[in-house]
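Try this one yourself first.
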C-alpha cells in the first residue's frame, strides 16, 4: 500500500453490497413497478445505483424470505432473445400496500446515502 492508494480509494470508493434487509426493500421497489427476474434486478441496481451491488447469495435469500412471507410469487416466462425461460417474480396483489411501504424504505435509504455522498464530495 502507498499513500497514493489511500487517496485513490477515497476518490473512487468501493461499491457497497446490500444486506438482506436492503435487498428485500430494493426488490419490492422494482417489483411494485414491473415483474422481473434475478439477473435483471442485479443489472438494474448497478445501472440506477452504481455505488451498490447485490450478490446472488443475498438475492436468493431475499427472494426466499419474500416467498415465505407470501409477498411475492413466481412463474416461468420465455424472455425475448434469451435461450431458456426465466423465473419471473411479482408482488402478490393483496400484499401490494405492504410491499409499497417497504419499497419506500429503499427510496429513503438511497436518497439519504446520495445526499451523504454529495456532501462528502462538495468543496468546503
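Now uncover the answer:
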Amino acid at each position: 500500500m502507498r499513500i497514493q492508494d489511500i487517496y485513490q480509494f477515497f476518490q473512487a470508493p468501493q461499491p457497497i453490497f446490500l444486506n438482506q434487509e436492503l435487498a428485500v426493500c430494493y426488490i419490492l421497489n422494482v417489483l411494485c413497478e414491473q415483474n422481473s427476474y434475478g439477473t435483471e434486478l442485479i443489472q438494474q441496481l448497478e445501472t440506477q445505483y452504481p455505488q451498490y451491488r447485490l450478490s446472488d447469495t443475498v438475492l436468493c435469500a431475499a427472494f426466499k424470505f419474500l416467498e415465505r412471507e407470501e409477498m411475492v410469487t413466481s412463474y416461468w416466462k420465455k424472455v425475448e432473445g434469451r435461450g431458456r425461460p426465466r423465473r419471473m417474480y411479482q408482488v402478490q396483489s393483496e400484499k401490494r400496500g405492504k410491499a409499497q411501504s417497504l419499497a419506500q424504505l429503499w427510496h429513503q435509504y438511497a436518497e439519504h446515502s446520495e445526499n451523504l455522498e454529495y456532501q462528502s464530495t462538495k468543496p468546503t
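Discussion: The helical segments are 3-11, 20-31, 38-48, 56-68, 96-121. The two ends are 28 Å apart (CA to CA).
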